[in-house]
């Protein structure tokens, strides 16, 4: 019998969504494979956060289908969401608790034993270079350090897919660089698939896959060189401008 193929980490098919009759996403379809770093690039109001809200099941759409690691989020939400890690646009750590307390609380919500949680906490903090801060109160940490803690927390249950919604907002250039590098290493070394939403072109690297979203529609999808060549532009910046300025 042939081996069953590895499922895509994320598969979105024909997704359409409206807020009170106002269309926000129209026929959105794409896939992300294990280990792939995909940047969801769109200006303010493009629909990025709405797409994340549908993937995480904060909202529900009856038009279209979303599957995480082969499990459809409407038909099998438990199986699908157990393979999903999320870093939201607004930080969600408890500032008055220590790093350790924040992470162990999250691990308990995912049903991890104390022992597994402690082992994973150590491993994930090491991965984002925050192992020395385990006993620090979150309030004492910089914005960039807090973001790295949020990534470590999102990895505790070993997701197949990690969503990050504009994770560098408010960070200085050096902290942004560290965050981008740590997240790429997750893809390369652990096969985690990443969907990174941003409106900042300079967060896209040549090795990334990029999806350009504008007014709820995918305007381009592929590796940076292909997307840029297809638009007949010399740079991704020019491509983004051409595909998003004034178009319906
Ligand atoms: N709860 C809501 N009710 C009604 N309209 C909404 C709601 N949330 C978002 N919208 C509208 O949906 C569209 C897409 O918004 P969304 O927040 O998904 O975009 P975004 O790409 O994440 O933007 P940003 O980069 O500014 O966060 C916008 O026109 C926004 O005004």
UniProtKB/TrEMBL annotation:
Belongs to the ABC transporter superfamily. Transmembrane segments: none annotated. This is ATP-binding cassette domain-containing protein. Keywords: ATP-binding, Nodulation, Nucleotide-binding, Transport. InterPro entries: AAA+_ATPase, ABC_transporter-like_ATP-bd, ABC_transporter-like_CS, ABC_transporter_ATP-binding, ABC_transprt_ATP-bd_su_PQQ, P-loop_NTPase. SMART domains: AAA (SM00382). It comes from the Bacteria. Residues 10-240 form the ABC transporter domain. Pfam families: ABC_tran (PF00005). PROSITE patterns: ABC_TRANSPORTER_1, ABC_TRANSPORTER_2. GO terms for molecular function: ATP binding. It comes from Aquamicrobium zhengzhouense.
């Amino acid at each position: 019998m042939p081996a069953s193929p590895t499922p895509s980490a994320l598969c979105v098919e024909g997704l359409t969504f409206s807020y009170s009759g106002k269309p926000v996403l129209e026929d959105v379809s794409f896939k992300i494979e294990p280990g792939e770093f995909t940047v969801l690039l769109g200006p303010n109001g493009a629909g990025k956060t709405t797409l994340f809200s549908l993937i995480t099941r904060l909202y529900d759409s009856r038009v279209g289908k979303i599957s995480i690691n082969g499990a459809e989020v409407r038909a099998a939400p438990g199986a699908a969401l157990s393979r999903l890690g999320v870093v939201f646009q607004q930080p969600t750590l408890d500032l008055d608790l220590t790093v350790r307390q924040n992470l162990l609380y999250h691990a308990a919500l995912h049903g991890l034993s104390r022992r597994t949680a402690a082992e994973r906490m150590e491993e994930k903090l090491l991965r984002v270079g925050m192992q020395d801060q385990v006993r620090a109160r979150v309030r004492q940490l910089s914005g960039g350090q807090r973001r790295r803690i949020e990534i470590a927390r999102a990895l505790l249950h070993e997701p197949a897919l990690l969503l990050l919604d504009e994770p560098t907002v408010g960070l200085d250039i050096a902290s942004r660089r560290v965050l981008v590098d740590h997240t790429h290493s997750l893809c390369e070394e652990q096969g985690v698939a990443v969907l990174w939403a941003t409106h900042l072109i300079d967060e896209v690297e040549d090795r990334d896959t990029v999806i350009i979203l504008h007014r709820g529609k995918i305007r381009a999808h592929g590796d940076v060189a292909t997307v840029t060549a297809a638009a007949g532009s010399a740079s991704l910046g020019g491509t983004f401008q051409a595909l998003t300025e004034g178009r319906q």
